[in-house]
Specification:
Elements (H helix, E strand, L loop, with lengths): L17 H17 L2 E5 L4 H17 L4 E7 L4 H13 L4 E10 L1 H6 L7 E3 L4 E4 L10 H26 L3 H7 L4 E4 H7 L4 E2 L8
Length: 204
């Protein structure tokens, strides 16, 4: 039986150098900016929020052409999510959010920022809404203050979900009481996404 062999150049190193990686990273960045894409991937914190907001502002300053935001996130810091959510409406260029992977918690809050017709998802996307979590600690008075703020945040986010989906606030509050998961079709039925797409050209 013939045994396949692998040929290597003597003294060669097929691992990409740091310079090669930097060049590729720069090229990807240029193409991403030129195609007017913004990526929201991973846990949402102040660093990610700043980068996303800077990209949104830069793209909007360059042109009023539509911006496409890809979101795959388990959520994260509520106020960092708020910053991105609000800036989507703040910039002049219209933003379309595209869900992929999972869109949960603060990620779902960001996803819901545009009008419904500008919210789409890929077939295997999962969505999740829930009430904000708290890590209250310290003196009893501080814990009471933090608990009050969590309730206010929960109600505020629930109102956003209700307004953007068309669901009654009472139902949204009840659904958010626990982790409420939806697949792509269920998210469309709920009003979170307008439709499921499979290809880039489906965005048009």
């Amino acid at each position: 039986m013939h045994t396949p062999t692998h040929t290597h150049l003597a003294g060669g190193d097929d691992k990409p150098s740091k310079a090669d990686k930097a060049d590729r990273g720069g090229l990807v960045e240029q193409l991403s900016f030129k195609s007017r894409y913004v990526m929201v991937f991973g846990e949402i914190d102040d660093k990610l929020a700043r980068g996303v907001c800077e990209r949104l502002i830069a793209l909007s300053q360059e042109s009023d052409a539509p911006i496409t935001m890809l979101i795959s996130s388990p959520g994260g810091h509520v106020e960092s999510g708020d910053a991105i959510h609000d800036l989507i409406s703040f910039v002049r260029a219209p933003v379309t959010t595209v869900g992929t992977g999972w869109v949960a918690s603060a990620g779902a809050h960001i996803f819901l920022a545009p009008p419904k017709e500008r919210r789409v998802c890929l077939p295997n996307t999962r969505f999740m809404i829930h009430q904000p979590a708290g890590g209250a600690g310290g003196q009893a008075t501080d814990i009471a203050i933090q608990a009050k703020e969590i309730i206010k945040t929960r109600e505020r986010i629930a109102k956003v979900v209700a307004r953007q989906t068309g669901q009654k606030l009472e139902r949204v509050l009840a659904d958010m009481d626990r982790d409420y998961w939806m697949d792509a079709k269920e998210a469309v039925a709920y009003g979170i996404a307008a439709r499921v797409i499979e290809r880039q050209q489906d965005l048009a």
